[in-house]
Amino acid sequence: MTIHAYKKSKKQLTIFFVTLIGITLLSAKLTNFNFLHGIQTLPKAIGWMFSNLYISAQSLEKFPSVLEKLVETIFLSITSTTTAAVVAMFLALMGSQTTKVNNFFASLSRIIASVYRNIPIVAWALILLLSFGQNALTGYFALFLATFGFLTRAFIETIDETSSSSVEALRASGATYFQMVAKAVMPECSPQMISWILYMIETNIRSSTLVGILTGTGIGFMFDLYYKSMNYNVVSLITISIVVVVIGIELISNYVRRVIL
Amino acid sequence: MALLHVKDVSKHYEKGKNVLSDINMEIFEGEFVSIIGPSGAGKSTFLRCINRMINISEGDIHFDGIDVSSLNKKSLRKHRTKIGMIFQHYNLVSRLTVIENVLHGRFGHKSTLQGVLGMFTEDEKMEAFHLLEKLGMSEHAYKRCDQLSGGQKQRVGIARALIQSPKLLLCDEPIASLDPNASKVIMDHLQSISKEMNITCIVNLHQVDVARKYSDRVIGLNSGRVVYDGESKALSSKAIHAIYGSEAGSLIME
User: Fold this and answer.
1) Distance (Å) from the C-alpha of residue A174 to the closest C-alpha of chain B?
2) Which stretches does DSSP call E strand in B41-158?
3) B87-99: per-residue pLDDT in tens?
4) Partner-chain residue, chosen from B78, B91, B116, that has the shortest CB–CB distance to A166
5) pLDDT (0 to 100) of residue B147
6) How many whole angstroms separate alpha carbon B54 and alpha carbon B26?
């Protein structure tokens, strides 16, 4: 790189950061957000959390019912993730450059995946609430649709990255489409795909809490109930148990990843 | 009659930009042919036109008496079983064992269901082990392919191509990622395959001295055109410079 080009890229970097700071200040001004005020209220907020958000002996009595709802939530996210993975698998095979059947279906499946992925899970929950009402099925479908969009995208990239060379070899030897999928794509991609599925299960346990608040099911509903009745001790019990479960699932999936990769 | 008959073949991806132009050649049974030329000359494209991994734009390719561009899906599959292919990056399924990868070469001869379920006959398995033994790989038969060295992987690739019982082997830079030792092993194997089993080999190479040493015939490509076609012994340094478009003394082999 010549000195001139170096100076130019440095100048560009400076302009970029100045613009970034400018945008931040402008948006703070527009939304009436005050940095100083925000920082000043922080100690007060932390103080409130310490005096209210603790687990009392009384709230521990609710633990069995919290646990029951928690298990319901975990299974809901596992079911929605695994079923979404099956659908995503087919769509990804269609959408991948390596295994596409033709360009029309490839574009179609990419468009479908992108639409479902880009609608936030909360929006799905609210839309589905109208047609399915307040029950676990609504939560299931909301999780399913968002997960399936994301997994399709992830699977497409996995297939393209890991199996294009062996697929080329098998195609050159006269193998059929399904032989290539079963004997080259699947063995090469399955570890990464399982890894994505585990990641999605973790994410879905977190989001199903939020979805539960909207659809009135699972741990989210319980959170909402005690929060609105201002029983903050139980709220903190619920929050901490969610955190413990999410960390637990993450540890398990990290272990599984290490073993299969 | 020639095994492979290439007539006036051209290939372009965009109109007016020919990757291959007016390629003409005849390749006979049992011949060992090297294709040399600078990167981007169209060597890989040409090889892939023969088994129709890439469709040609103009011209005719006749292989074993069959017009390649007229084949439908089913007969294309049959056509490809007669042509084994070997790649620079081996293109094995790295998470499967050596023997599984070798047996993959039989898929072309099997129904979809047999292939998906991995149903191979006793004969096919025997043949796979026999080939591995011949290539000095029998002790690695149950190893996963990602544990092998480059030279070993390429030998698995050769076994996978040979189990197709092909009439022609297309080798796309088989030694470009190998060290000199492994390169020699691979080239020796390819040579003995061509001599003993009477299988025609078309090999893309970057090493002119290797091409000269091993092949019966050398074809030089530059910018998608055949600029040299003749016996490897007759390949003069003037001809080499014509192929690579270089000045005398500017190539690393001199």
Assistant:
1) 4
2) 58-63, 66-67, 83-86
3) 999 999 999 999 9
4) B91
5) 92
6) 20
pLDDT for residue A129: 87
DSSP A174-195: T--HHHHIIIIIHHHHHHHHHH
Q: For B117-148, what is each residue's pLDDT tens digit?
A: 989 999 999 999 999 999 999 999 999 999 99
Strands B217-222 and B200-205: unpaired
The candidate with the shortest Cα–Cα distance to B178, out of B157, B192, B202, B199, is B157
Q: Do A182 and B108 lie within an 8 Å CB cutoff?
A: no
Amino acid in the structure at residue B16: G
Q: Show Cβ contacts of residue A183 under 8 Å, excluding neighbours closer than 6 positions.
A: A170, A175, B93, B96, B104, B107, B115, B116, B118
ipTM: 0.90
Measuring CA to CA, how many Å separate A118 from each of A91, A128, A145, A237?
Answer: 16, 16, 10, 33
Fold of A58-260: MetI-like fold (1.10.3720)
Q: How far is A189 from chain B (nearest CA, A)?
A: 9
Q: Structural domain boundaries of chain B?
A: 27-56+66-82+167-254, 90-165
Question: Closest Cα partner for A198 from A210, A188, A209, A190?
Answer: A190
Where does B30-75 show beta strands of DSSP type E?
Answer: 32-36, 58-63, 66-67
The second-level CATH assignment, the architecture, of B27-56+66-82+167-254 is 3-Layer(aba) Sandwich (3.40)
Is residue A2's pLDDT more than 70?
A: no
| Per-residue model confidence (pLDDT) at position B84 | 94
Segment A155-167, tens digit of pLDDT: 999 999 888 899 9
Between A232-260 and A63-95, two packed helices, what is the crossing angle to 10 degrees? 40
Domains of chain A, residue spans? 3-52, 58-260
